[in-house]
Amino acid sequence: MVKPNCRFCNAEPSLQSIKGEFVYGGTSEQHFWKCDACQMIYLFPPPSEEEESAFYRKEFEKYMAKRSAHDKDWSSPEKHFESNQGEVRRRLPFLERHLREGQSVLEIGCSSGFMLSALKDKGIDAYGLDPSEGFIEYVKSKGIDVYKNLEELIENHDVAFDLIIHYYVLEHVRNPLEFIKEYMGLLNDTGKMIFEVPCATDPLLELYKVPAFERFYWSVAHHWYFTRESLAGLLRKTDYNFELFPEQRYDISNHMTWMQEGKPGGLHRYSHIFGPELEELYREKLKGNWLCDTIIAVVEK
């Protein structure tokens, strides 16, 4: 097997090693590699830009429906919107610290618009951007302007944003450093970018080492997986101020389901037994050790 140069820092092949052997939805030649120089974890070989564009236009919702458990419904925009209300409730307490009525907020990768609708209900001037053609018309039907790409956004919206948000988008981006710089340029002088990405020190990988999760986790839809160290290294190259926070989306019931059945699902399955105090303590212990499934980043000029 020929080792690649790092896709992020171009470090030599001797500094590259395989982190994820099996790529869900990928080919036998594709693996996720880790660079010892910059700590970035990346897919190699990546899909072509043409393959990637076609995937997001026509296939993304179907791919996600196959990967998702029953707690997330991708079968229609209406069902996706409703099944993600739990995510709205999880995200809002953190986001509300940075919100004020009348702000203009752009969400990149807005999907069915469940976050934008919640923000609009709070008096926020909400806008969306999403390359997928699947749910755009549904979001527009709620009175929210949505653009298919950056060029269309710039052509139709010439006012700087107060806040840009994106959830589980940066790992899909071919050039994450360029992406951050480009979209930070759409903010006003006091603007912020807040986003979430999967954390590669997920407890099912690093703590419990569940084989079925290992074969599920590394997705061909992602170019990158981030740790606290690698994401900080990327953001330092932007010269913007930033802060990173650990977050844990999935609960002890989901982790037990993976260990028992080797498949996703089970969210809240045993909540009636464990109770909210144990659930919260479990989450906080994982976050305190950075053995968590998500990283929240706040970036400001």
Question: What report would you give on this structure?
Answer:
The chain is 38% helix and 21% strand. The protein has 301 residues and is of the alpha/beta class. The strands form 2 sheets. A 7-stranded mixed sheet has the order 6-5-4-7-8-11-10, with helices on both faces. It has a 4-stranded antiparallel sheet with strand order 1-2-3-9, with no helix packed on it. The chain is globular, with a radius of gyration of 19 Å.
Layout: helices, strands, pairs:
Elements: E1 16-20, E2 31-35, E3 41-44, H1 49-67, H2 77-83, H3 85-95, E4 104-108, H4 114-121, E5 125-129, H5 136-140, E6 145-147, H6 150-156, E7 161-167, H7 176-184, E8 187-198, H8 203-206, H9 211-217, E9 224-225, H10 228-236, E10 241-247, H11 252-261, H12 271-288, E11 294-300
Parallel strand pairs: 4-5, 4-7, 5-6, 7-8
Antiparallel strand pairs: 1-2, 2-3, 3-9, 8-11, 10-11
